Amino acid sequence: MVPSKLNLKQEKRNWLDLPSDVTFNILNRIGMVDILENAQKVCAAWRKICKDPAMWRVINMNDIPRFGTRLFPIEMCKHAVDRSQDQLVDITASAEVSAVKMCKHAVDRSQGQLVDITIVFLYDDDLHLYVADRYVS
């Protein structure tokens, strides 16, 4: 017999009560774009974790849409609408974001602790040099 929802006692939990290493592990799985554009803006505790250089030891640019080196608000909006599964209430688009700029920002956050980087979009030699210049062996 399956218990009814009325019989289940739902306990409210506060995400801030999680140990920081558990929060780090969760945030590390959501993707670079979501960390830079969303998660770090949730609260001071998450921002501190998102700015930790250890978060940026491995940078995977796979979550950047594959339509060139620029992220266009219209494409990001379409992606957000698709992910909302008809639950979208409001959406606001801002100016286009450079994928190269976002990559450089992630590399800077590693503060020399970068171990691995995956870049899936078109990039120029300047980005390659930028990453190489900040790599500490």
UniProtKB/TrEMBL annotation:
It comes from the Eukaryota. PANTHER family: F-BOX DOMAIN CONTAINING PROTEIN, EXPRESSED, F-BOX DOMAIN, LEUCINE-RICH REPEAT DOMAIN SUPERFAMILY. It comes from Helianthus annuus (Common sunflower). Residues 12-59 form the F-box domain. Gene3D superfamilies: 1.20.1280.50. Pfam families: F-box-like. InterPro entries: F-box-like_dom_sf, F-box_dom. The lineage of its organism: Eukaryota, Viridiplantae, Streptophyta, Embryophyta, Tracheophyta. This is F-box domain-containing protein. GO terms for molecular function: SCF ubiquitin ligase complex binding.
